[in-house]
Amino acid sequence: MKITEHLANAKSTLFSFEILPPLKGQSLKELLEGIEPLMEFNPPFVDVTYHREEFIYKKHPNGLLEKVSTKKRPGTVGICAAIMNRFQVDAVPHLLCGGFTKEETENALIDLNFIGVENVLALRGDAPKGEKFTPEREGHAFAGELVEQIIRMNQGKYLHEETENNFHTDFCVGVAGYPEKHFEAPSLKFDLKQLKEKVDKGAEYIVTQMFFDNQKYFDYVKKVREAGIEVPIIPGLKPITTLGQITMLPRTFFLDLPDALMDELEKCKTNGEVKEVGISWAIQQSKELVKAGVPSLHFYTMSKADTTYKIAKEVF
């Protein structure tokens, strides 16, 4: 079923979450068993991230360094199939511009269609560490272009086949939203203009980046609506669980931590204490968002279900 159908049919706020594929060489069994407790809360869909290549430098005996491409978390398509088969829920794979050509994207969409996937989340994706984002030579530079390609396939238009008899896919396309604006956008107004372009091209729902101040989400929704965008906006949540995340999350995702949250986190001396504060704050956030009638609470689990389970147990 499409995400938009799940949201339209829901009588109350839904529960959903995102997972990462296992690192290369690790088993899928542990991941599936790890997220099984979350099925208690009846998630209608589970997001599965997609990952571009990373580069390592291999030193040769002659002292020269060779730049080698590697994918640390392959298997998104297969994991989607496994999730749908085991849990009877919809899997939502992420699709990226960065690191992929248009033809690779088309082939991935064909594979996803074959296994019964009906939803995809279209993202530009991040640049490799320490580099500026650069599209592939035959790839997309922006998520809006990726949305366009997916919608063209929904219309039966493939890259190289011009016949009118091509099979039409029927993907529901989601895109990302940034309550505190995308870090590369010069202003929130400009960011919302880019978001509207993606929706005008066919995106049917929005999932936000994590935030820790609900007012930022409420203000964002208001501004999105004022910009003429009417699709559902699903809030994304992630509790802080370690001391390192107190500085890492704001720096990596360009977001602010509320003063009230920081007042509590500054008292923490251990990861365990931070985790307790993070869970308590996320429960408070979640309850307020549910009361406001948000379409779903979407948790970024990093494939670790215990924290999300504790939050969902108090909310759903």
Considering the chains and any ligands shown, give keywords for the structure.
alpha/beta; 11 helices; 8-stranded parallel β-barrel; 18% strand; 316 residues
Characterization of this structure:
By secondary structure, the chain is an alpha/beta fold. 40% of the residues lie in helices and 18% in strands. It is built from eleven helices and ten strands. The protein has helices at residues 3-9, 28-35, 76-87, 102-114, 143-154, 188-200, 214-226, 245-253, 259-265, 271-291, 305-315; strands spanning 14-19, 45-48, 54-59, 65-70, 90-96, 119-123, 172-177, 205-210, 233-237, 296-300. Helix 5 (143-154) packs parallel to helix 6 and helix 10 (271-291) packs across helix 11 (305-315). The longest helix has 21 residues, at 271-291. It is globular and about 60 Å long. The mean pLDDT is 92.
Topology diagram in text:
Layout: H1 3-9, E1 14-19, H2 28-35, E2 45-48, E3 54-59, E4 65-70, H3 76-87, E5 90-96, H4 102-114, E6 119-123, H5 143-154, E7 172-177, H6 188-200, E8 205-210, H7 214-226, E9 233-237, H8 245-253, H9 259-265, H10 271-291, E10 296-300, H11 305-315
Parallel strand pairs: 1-2, 1-10, 2-5, 5-6, 6-7, 7-8, 8-9, 9-10
Antiparallel strand pairs: 3-4
